[in-house]
Amino acid sequence: MSIVLGIDLGTQSVKVVFYDYLKGNVVAVESAPLDIYQTEAGIAEQQAHWWVNALKQALQKVGKGVRQGVVAIGVSGQQHGFVPLNKAGEVQAPVKLWCDTSTGAECQAIMDAFGGFDACIKEVGNPILPGYTASKVRWFRNAHPGLYAQMDTILLPHDYLNFYLTGERCMEAGDASGTGFLNITTRTWSEKMLAAIDPDRDLTTCLPEAKLTNESIGELLPSVAREVGLPPGVPVSIGGGDNMMGALGTGNVTAGVVTMSLGTSGTVYACSDKPIIDEKGNIAAFCSSTGNWLPLLCTMNCTVTTELMRNLLKADMASFEAQLNISSRGAEGVITLPYFNGERTPNLPDAKGCILGLDARNMRSENILRSAVEGATLALRIGLGEVSQLGISADQRVLTGGGANSATWRQVVADICNAPVTVLKNNEGAGFGAALQALAMLENRNNDLSKLTSEHLQADSALSREPSVSAVNFYSDIYETYQRGAQKVAELYG
Asked: Are residues 162 and 302 in the same domain?
């Protein structure tokens, strides 16, 4: 048996990736959708049991023989979500997600209590932004004091799936660096920041040790094994946040590689052998899951934008791609500012999405869809510039996420960013990264990740793209217009 299983708990679905590491083949990929509860007030929540049910559904779609061949499991998960458990291991409340922007007041209260924006960056490497776990803890304290008093453990989404699989409560430093209360330089909990969240309670008692190395956190429980049709006793690796596992799944384990993920959110991140702290707070100072660091920029609306536009125009994926193929560069002057969930970079939690440049001539569906793709990509271009200013160079840019499945979108990224983009044959991103982490644990190769990823990752020349000189020049002008529009949105909603 030589199959490692990667589980990816996303925002819109749970995906499972079965990888036969001896044959070098992904033998099965399945998923199950997730609902999300959202309100105009910025609330974005899911129930933890939805994740478990979706995991079971996805696994049941895979043949029994494949499932029984699993020898190790790794879990990736959406970052920042707040999962409070009581002593009995029961989830106490709906899970506030990374895209929840309703806790702006709590963010400000924490930073005020700590001494301001700059003081927070100096202490933990990051400001306290909406979406980070810190503000959700304070919100829970204020909104549900009775339940808060009974809170025994704070977990993140991937930690909760680990808990379901093994019964173990733990955290991993990469994912934990997105809480806002892990000192990313020392990889230890900041007691000062936790006191700013709640001065009356020692929150360190609710936090498991932040594990620094990939290891088995436990074995698959017999009861869970029976439920999902996997072998009992299979070791489960520490796992990590989706960005950290995406780094593994794209070979981003040494300096010189930049990953761009076109997922529900859009991310740009790179591997560094030292902490990279942005004094402006635009680039998240995160730890990686490899013992290094992972400076990262996140935008809140990537495939969110294209999915909203597709649903509005009732375009399925085939129609979406067909309309992109007939659209022209620049969408005939239509520009989308994709702030439909608010935005983290720039920090505009109350911003709204805007479509600029519509007139009687260009108001056609292909232009609106094209502008959604271009707008989401222009937002990420800002990230590449910010990363570069911090001294991080890129010899290779690897594209992953659902948006990378679109040939037109891949070319738009190359043109807007004026750089070649690489797409991998095993383009399963975070799910594949979780599988590779499980393999590294199994073979005790945590100190050999560069060689491990090179053995199991290969570029797909048919999908990779080079920039067009004429397109690069064209998009430079569009970028300037986009930036002016973004400034107006900041003035309107900031």
From this structure: no
